[in-house]
Amino acid sequence: MKRALITGISGFVGRHLQEELLREGWNVFGFDIRPTGENVFVGDLSDRAALTRAVADYQPDAVFHLAGIIKSQDPQVYYTSNLFGTLNLLDAILRMEKRPKVVLASSSAVYGLTKSARPITERSPLRPVTEYAVSKVAQETAALRYHYAFGLDVVIARMFNLLGPGQSPDLACSAFARQIALAEISEQDEIVTGNLDAKRDFVDVRDAVRAFALLAEKGEAGQTYNVCSGNAVAIQQCLSEMMFKSKKQLSARVDPARVQKNDVPVQVGSFQKLHKAAGWNPRIPLNESLADLLNDWRERVKVELK
């Protein structure tokens, strides 16, 4: 039985990836700052000794590196976690006699300010506009160095905008879903938003983790793959679809304080490289992803309000 180690196994993507790998017959282990059950080593990416013990104990055939920071008020945290934490993990893997495949979770944020509405390919220039994006570019560059310098079998998956049940309310569509779910059981009738004009490439997290599993089998070392839908959708459309599914008549109001600085107007990717390498296509349509996200929040707010 193949053995997988998932860093950040308790997170949004990690939980879905664990389910996907178990369905595919993998033996799954985790490394996470939070205790989440059996077969999970509790530790932090800053702890080299803990990472070394985890990979030595589990002897994985594949490491899926998902752990990191997406949002922080302190720019240095992005580099401490996303860059230096990754270096600590890769150093630990170098000490192993049996070298596993490493699938590194990166982000479409590395492409940043695109100058065309055409689909982004893996050869498109990187123009990061946020500290998070810069930290992911640095993370990718460092990981590729371990491939070229030490022969590590590293594959990079650049995820575009994810959707699906269990998503954090820190991200726009999930924040909308949470507000709608709360409004349905309260006197609230207004959804507060940020910029709704931006267009994004949304892909369901369950499709994304299927791509991760395929890349562990078929991804070429030293290569980068976009994980996306190939469609640009306005955030306004996502909000409108969820409001239409609401059990209550609602209105939306843009809060200028929620409008993100350096917001990229349009971003859409091409998944043709991933399709060619692993036969992957997105399967779950946007309306299903949004419906599942909204239904998930309807259950979560019940727990919040207890």
Shape: globular
> In sequence order, what are the helices and strands, one letter per element?
EHEEHEHEHEEHEEEHEEHEHH
- Report low-confidence residues grouped into runs of 5 or more: none
Helix content: 40-55%
Judged by helices, strands and strand pairing, the structural class is alpha/beta
Distance between the termini: 42 Å
For the residues shown, what is the average pLDDT? 95
Rg result: 19 Å
Strand content: 15-25%
Biggest pleated sheet: 7 strands, parallel
The main sheet orders its strands as 3-2-1-4-5-6-11
Number of helices: 9
Count of DSSP E strands?
A: 13
How would you name the oligomeric state of the polypeptide chains in this document?
single chain
List keywords for this structure.
single chain; 306 residues; alpha/beta; 7-stranded parallel sheet; two-stranded parallel sheet; 9 helices; 13 strands
Describe the protein:
By secondary structure, the chain is an alpha/beta fold. It has nine helices and 13 strands. It has a seven-stranded parallel beta sheet with strand order 3-2-1-4-5-6-11, with helices on both faces. Strands 7-10 form a two-stranded parallel ribbon. Strand 1, helix 1 and strand 2 form a beta-alpha-beta unit. Helix 1 crosses helix 6 (205-218), helix 3 runs parallel beside helix 4 (131-150) and helix 5 (172-184) crosses helix 9. The model has no long low-confidence stretch (mean pLDDT 95).
